[in-house]
Amino acid sequence: AMNLTRHFKVGGSLFTRPKTLRAVEDVSLTVQKGETLAIVGESGCGKSTLARMLMRLIAPTSGQMTFEGRQIDQAEGRALTELRRDMQFIFQDPFSSLNPRMTVGRLVGEPLETHAPQLSGKDRRAKVGELLAQVGLRPEHGERYPHEFSGGQRQRIGIARALASGPKLIIGDEPVSALDVSVQAQVINLLADLRDRLGLTLVVIAHDLAVIRHMSDRVAVMYLGKVVEEGPTDEIFATPRHPYTMALLSAIPEAEYGRTRAQIPLTGEMPSPIDPPAGCRFHTRCPFAREACKQDVPALRDTGIAPGHRAACHFFEEIAAEGAMPLPTGG
Ligand code: SF4
Ligand code: MG
User: Fold this and answer.
1) Domain end point (choices 186, 216, 246)
2) Tell me: the pLDDT tens digits for 106-150?
3) Where is the ABC transporter domain (predicted)?
4) 20 to 30 Å CA-CA from 98: which of 38, 132, 287, 291?
């Protein structure tokens, strides 16, 4: 069918005993078919927890998730197997996620046993060769073991394995952050290329805005378990509205986005998600914090700049008017 829409909503919080760890709190996100959504934030902001809930590796405490109109948070048995075929995961550390005693050919072919059991041995080997070619590896690489490959090649193997089931959605949890900077761009380009060729939908988790700058359509910025700003990637870079987003952007060298902007320093540590600050969770580090920020929880509100651009700050209008914003281009 044409014009399929993929809605993917999450709401909920994760509880661990004996204390309540509010890793993800009341997050709602939607990703459209063919789109790339980036989820960005410092480590501990809840983005990996969110990714694991999306993958059904852990259950949300409350809230719902839907995939192509089907509710998936309770999926079991056959429905869960189908979900595992449609949604695949790429891990941060490609080495730890690959069994060192299996050849690359077996690693990539293994998901086919579940998702394409009808294939003969010969057809399966042909399919493995095809998958390796898709990620830029050669058929003879299938005879080798993971330790014989570089970090970037191992991530390619992880991607080939993720592609084996013919997924519609791929979730990458910091897929390039363990790689050398020189290799990061190659893997990012490969993912973008596969998305376009195979019509994939991507959700990419990252702690670095620069990494996702050129590959994502939309960005959701998370802080202490909450989405503090979301919107089209270009708008987030050009006209950020949340002070935390401004601080993350201030950490990127200017050449990366080619604009002059006010520098918002990010001081101090992120507080613990156990017993997070009341009111705005960012108030302990925000240079614009006022009394009201300590009590009142800011809602995600439309910025009025672009459709879907929303920020959770009581005072973003005033902060923008006061000029704590990027200067106009060429100014
Ligand atoms: Fe800063 Fe207050 Fe806005 Fe939170 S609500 S980001 S503390 S100004
Ligand atoms: Mg993480």
Assistant:
1) 216
2) 999 999 998 899 999 999 999 999 999 999 999 999 999 999 999
3) 1-249
4) 38
pLDDT tens sequence across 23-61: 788 888 888 899 999 999 988 888 888 888 888 787 777
Residues 201 and 260 occupy one common structural domain = no
Distances (CA, A) of 210 to 228, 257, 329: 18, 9, 19
Cα 303 to ligand 1 centroid, rounded to whole Å: 15
From the CA of 124, how far away is ligand 1's center (Å)? 55
Place of tokens 């998901």: 111
Do 209 and 239 share a structural domain? no
* Contact of 220 with 208, CB cutoff 8 Å: no
Query: Closest Cα to residue 282, out of 234, 226, 330?
Result: 226
Does ligand 1 come within 6 angstroms of the Cβ of 314? Answer: yes
Query: 104-115 vs 121-134: helix axis angle to the nearest 10?
Result: 120
Residues 186 and 42 in one domain: yes
Residue range(s) defining the domain that contains residue 317: 233-321
